[in-house]
Amino acid sequence: MATLPSGESVLKYSDYSVLAVDDSDINLKLLVHTLKPLGFQVLTAINTEEARAILATNHVDVLLLDVSMPGQDGFSFCKELREIDRFKLLPILFITAYNREIGFDEAITHGGDDFLHKPFQPRELVAKIRAFIRIKNLQDELMQQKKKYEKELVMARRVQQELVPEKSLDWNNLHVSSIFHPLMQIGGDFIDAWVEDDNLHLFIADCSGHGPSAALLSAMVKMQVSNLSKITGLKEKVSNLRVQLEKILPEDFSITFFYGILNKNRTLEYANGGHPPPLLYRSGSVEELSGMGPLIIPLDLGTEDEFRTIPFEPGSSLLFYTDGATEITDENYNILGEENLKRIFREAVESDQDVLNFCLDKILMHSNRLTHDDDIALMVVKG
């Protein structure tokens, strides 16, 4: 397929093929007589059956289609083609004796792109074909860029999986597991758990936006979190994390986070920077971990982090999540919400199933697994 010349260069018509479908031999000869001298490759068919065979074995850039033909009419044939992926964007111009108002309306309704009334003016026909080719070339270019972008996203996803691997960690009779379900191939949620100085560190963050820009932010977060190992104490770690991220965070972007450190005595110290509060299951009920500090933005909000400490008793469980889990919508745009997530988490802990996968399945079931509007990251600490 030839590409459009740059600027206002004239199209090289010999690079493009036109299929004309009409049961009238005279009309077909007129179309060939009009287009072939200009250099177009012209294919002809006297009915939709012949046209179907030509389309199956030839590349066609523009389809000229009559309406009233023996057997299948042009409108139904056009509708049939639009249901086939490779013909969804094929320019289709109806050439018919229908009056202009009815003909144009019917052409568009059945999937056509334009309408030309018989007898047509050769200059008008060529002008319409020329416009179709320019549009199709742009569409082809966009599709090529889309395929290239999707390929790059797949590669970026593999890189992000290495940076943010799904965790399965056992420590001090506790089991930690995590999962990341991005809106696109890559996303801006970051989640991690690791053992440092005989303590279990639990971290989750949500970078604003989606796709590559958010993924780059999450990579920045990972780098800064990795550098915190040299710093002792949760307060000092959080303070350093804020300072470093606020220096490099682009304008109009933000990061929410939750950072907790669980010691061997099952005492959890944590700080919440504007993140959805984790859910704590204990004694048959689910509650939110209280306490909330500011999110990370490249602006001094004049507020300080709030640090809390709670006991993490045997038999308890924690669920860390990003807001994509609670803001997922059903077909009527009703969000799942915090209360439903609490119910799901309680049912998961009290079931004999894997808590993490149980929660994710129920969350996605809310949208009937059709789609979701944000990245979803989950981490479960089961005691």
Structural description of this entry:
The chain is of the alpha+beta class. It folds into two domains: 15-151, Rossmann fold (3-Layer(aba) Sandwich), CATH 3.40.50.2300; 164-382, 4-Layer Sandwich (Phosphatase 2c, domain 1), CATH 3.60.40. 36% of the residues lie in helices and 24% in strands. The strands form three sheets. Strands 6-7-16-15-12-13 form a six-stranded antiparallel β-sheet, with helices on one face. The protein is elongated. Mean pLDDT is 87; it is low at 1-8.
Topology of helices and strands:
Blueprint (H helix, E strand, L loop, with lengths): L16 E5 L3 H11 L5 E5 L2 H10 L4 E4 L8 H9 L9 E5 L3 H10 L4 E4 L4 H42 L4 E4 L2 E8 L7 E8 L2 E9 L3 H16 L7 H15 L6 E8 L4 E7 L5 E4 L2 E4 L18 E5 L5 E5 L15 H14 L4 H12 L9 E7 L1
Parallel strand pairs: 1-2, 1-3, 3-4, 4-5
Antiparallel strand pairs: 6-7, 7-16, 8-9, 9-10, 10-11, 11-14, 12-13, 12-15, 15-16
Helix pairs in contact: 5-6, 6-7, 8-9
In short:
The chain is α+β, with helices and mostly antiparallel strands and 383 residues long.
List keywords for this structure.
383 residues; alpha+beta; Rossmann fold; 2 domains; six-stranded antiparallel beta sheet; five-stranded parallel beta sheet; 16 strands; elongated; disordered N terminus; Sig_transdc_resp-reg_receiver; phosphatase activity; hydrolase; phosphoprotein
| Main CATH class of the largest domain | Alpha Beta
Elements, N to C (H/E) = EHEHEHEHEHEEEEHHEEEEEEHHE
Structural class: alpha+beta
- The low-confidence parts are 1-8
Spatial strand order of the main sheet: 6-7-16-15-12-13
Give the helix tally. Answer: 9
Specify Rg, calculated over alpha carbons: 30 Å
> Per DSSP, what share of the residues sits in E-state strands of 2 or more residues?
15-25%
Shape: elongated
Distance between the termini: 61 Å
Instruction: Kindly report the name of the CATH homologous superfamily of the largest domain.
Output: PPM-type phosphatase domain
CATH architecture of the largest domain: 4-Layer Sandwich
What value does the average pLDDT take? 87
Instruction: Report the strand count.
Output: 16
Number of domains: 2
